[in-house]
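Data card: per-record layout.
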Amino acid sequence: MAATLEVDLVDAVGKVWSGRARQVSAPAADGEIGILAGHTPILSVLRAGEVRVRTEGEGVLSWHVDGGFLSVDSDTVTIVVDALSDSTSSSH
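The structure for this 92-residue chain is written out next.
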């Protein structure tokens, strides 16, 4: 099992962020979802809320999204959102 995830965050304009991460959290339609390496394949609708990506070196990046979907397959996470606000980062 891989220790990291490949993550792509895309909005209507194009790719917002791409990189390696240790964890992804997102506001799924039926509750908060957390993704770690080795997660089973999933396709989930996203509601408005905060997408958080714990990277290998940048700390935690987060974006407020207005909805979209998330897919996970073979340690690759693709997040496609309708709209998002500016990202923030922290070292936590």
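Known properties of this structure: DSSP finds no helices and nine strands in the chain. The chain has a mean pLDDT of 91.

See the next section for split statistics.
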